[in-house]
Amino acid sequence: MKTKILTLMTACMLGLSFSSSAAIMKDSKKEKAEVTFLVSMTCEKCQKRIENNLSFEKGVTGLDVDLPKKTVTIEYRKDKTSPDKLKAAIKKLGYTATPFHVQKEGKQKTE
């Protein structure tokens, strides 16, 4: 009887360790990144159009469209999309998109 209980407990412990390591491996594939673009939007309608379309792009997990600064900051999963694909999605909507980087001194830089 004790042998059965010991065997059952060992099997349960092994099962739990395999499932937790599988969850860790899944999460590592979901590595996120962020990219910011200067976009040629001019009005609130442009802002809404970008928000409504880009939020449904594959891999997009977060989106911040700032009309006064004319920037679009996109958080995305690296395994699902790339900055080039996101830039193409913005261009497909009819806007120009230029990668935007903030330098450490707080100055803005475009490429």
Give me the secondary-structure topology.
Blueprint: H1 2-29, E1 32-39, H2 44-54, E2 60-66, E3 71-77, H3 83-92, E4 97-102, E5 108-110
InterPro entries: HMA_dom, HMA_dom_sf
Protein name: Heavy metal-associated domain-containing protein
Keywords: Signal
What does this structure look like?
This is Heavy metal-associated domain-containing protein. Keywords: Signal. Helix content is 44%, strand content 28%. With 111 residues, the chain is an alpha+beta fold. Strands 2-3-1-4-5 form a 5-stranded antiparallel beta sheet. About 5% of the residues have low confidence. It contains 3 helices and 5 strands, in the order αβαββαββ. It folds into 2 domains: 28 residues; 80 residues, 2-Layer Sandwich (Alpha-Beta Plaits). A hairpin with a 5-residue loop joins strand 4 and strand 5.
Name a few traits of the molecule.
single chain; 111 residues; alpha+beta; Alpha-Beta Plaits; 2 domains; five-stranded antiparallel sheet; 5 strands
